[in-house]
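Try this one yourself first.
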């Protein structure tokens, strides 16, 4: 077997065998296959695609390239969730404690923000003292005692994906459904949970720009789950505008804390109830999604989810005074209120552009390793369908870099388009994909 023949086969659109896929993934991971050959194979996959069996084989080869977390020491079924990326996406901060409060352990590895999307690990690090690295023993103990632990991905988790993603990033081969599915699922399967709920975002701020593409990605990942013996659901959610109100690390933690105390934006609530509900359903803690969502609404309203978040923060060394009083969280030195310059209805928002505006303010990083400003970000009132009069507040920009305000404001304004006629508010959730395929969303939460 050699890489030249494997590349040639895929170039002609032929199906690769499991052995060929393992040969390529293992050889690239151990360095015996060079970047230029892997790049050629990735480009051929991008152009010719892979069938379900090939995609599953690639996922499993990538999963097996490092260690696989053994969560068997934690009793019961364990649940995990993952988002394909968004702007203002603080869902993990909420669903972890909500689900843990109802007795389902959540052992989660999360990533950092890159480009226009944020990352849970950066958000948690805005809480003074919070540690995103725990020893294996401490991680397991926290999941057993508190029901929830969230840490950064260990270097040993799916190392093939780390190398392949870095190559895809510079060879224009990120936007391939089988490659995205294999990348995400290899890490999720290596994380060891029994039930995985995927938040597949769709729209201007997401990888998937259209509903058919989002459904295809969701179906591909659910099929990989089936082939691996795990229960996987995917929820297709809207990312055509900011989720909730805030974008930025400390700002999103603050929003999450108020949300866990019951003061939660409608779109964020619906998203969290649905994702957390599927985690409970998959772990057999509810007979239906409706029943699960009712129970979750109760833990939001009666303070159990909030108390679970407090216990989780304390167990990872975070100073809970910042949670009890979120106004203590890092605050930016400068702020600017951005006001509407015309009357009209907000017709559309480019969520990616808003995310990029928050990066300029310091809330995100352009490239891996860049420093971020925990207090920077955007308080956003510009929701599609809302009417604004000249002078109404669209958003507030927060930053320590005063010199960034003009560029951030200009970019933010360029993301919005107004018109004279009213438009409907966009859907928050388009549907759910499970092993039976796509079902349009029908719940009235
Ligand atoms: N997120 C990932 O982890 N991998 C991809 O390929 C795309 C998004």
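Now uncover the answer:
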């Amino acid at each position: 077997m050699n890489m030249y023949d494997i590349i040639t086969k895929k170039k002609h659109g032929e199906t690769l065998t499991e052995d060929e896929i393992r040969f390529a993934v293992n050889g690239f991971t151990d360095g015996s296959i060079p970047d230029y050959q892997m790049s050629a194979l990735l480009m051929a996959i991008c152009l010719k695609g892979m069938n379900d069996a090939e995609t599953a084989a690639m996922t499993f080869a990538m999963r097996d390239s490092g260690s696989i977390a053994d969560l068997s020491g934690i009793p019961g079924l364990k649940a995990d969730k993952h988002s394909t990326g968004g702007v203002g996406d603080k869902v993990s901060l909420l669903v972890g404690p909500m689900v843990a409060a109802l007795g389902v352990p959540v052992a989660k590895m999360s990533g950092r923000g890159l480009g226009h999307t944020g990352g849970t690990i950066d958000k948690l690090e805005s809480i003074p003292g919070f540690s995103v690295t725990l020893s294996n023993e401490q991680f397991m103990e926290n999941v057993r005692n508190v029901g929830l632990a969230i840490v950064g991905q260990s270097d040993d988790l799916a190392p093939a994906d780390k190398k392949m993603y870095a190559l895809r990033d510079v060879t224009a081969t990120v936007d391939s459904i089988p490659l995205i599915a294999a990348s995400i699922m290899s890490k999720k399967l290596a994380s060891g949970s029994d039930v995985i709920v995927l938040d597949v975002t769709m729209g201007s701020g997401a990888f998937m720009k259209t509903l058919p593409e989002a459904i295809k990605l969701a179906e591909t990942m659910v099929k990989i789950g089936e082939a691996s013996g795990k229960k996987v659901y995917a929820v297709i959610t809207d990312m055509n505008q900011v989720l909730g109100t805030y974008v930025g690390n400390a700002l999103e933690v603050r929003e999450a804390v108020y949300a866990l105390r019951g003061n939660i934006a409608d779109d964020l609530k619906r998203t969290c109830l649905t994702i957390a509900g599927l985690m409970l359903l998959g772990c057999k803690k509810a007979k239906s999604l409706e029943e699960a969502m009712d129970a979750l609404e109760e833990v939001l309203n009666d303070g159990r989810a909030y108390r679970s978040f407090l216990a989780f923060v304390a167990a990872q060394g975070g100073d809970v005074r910042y949670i009890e009083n979120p106004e203590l969280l890092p605050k930016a030195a400068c702020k600017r209120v951005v006001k509407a310059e015309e009357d009209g209805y907000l017709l559309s928002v480019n969520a990616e552009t808003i995310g990029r505006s928050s990066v300029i303010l310091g809330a995100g990083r352009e490239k891996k390793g860049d420093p971020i400003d925990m207090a920077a970000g955007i308080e956003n009132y510009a929701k599609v369908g809302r009417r604004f009069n000249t002078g109404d507040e669209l958003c507030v920009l927060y930053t320590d870099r005063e010199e960034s305000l003009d560029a951030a404001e200009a970019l933010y304004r360029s993301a919005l388009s107004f018109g004279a006629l009213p438009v409907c508010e966009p859907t928050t959730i388009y549907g759910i994909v499970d092993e039976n395929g796509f079902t349009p969303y029908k719940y009235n939460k």
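Discussion: The CA atoms of residues 245 and 380 lie 5 Å apart. The two ends are 54 Å apart (CA to CA).
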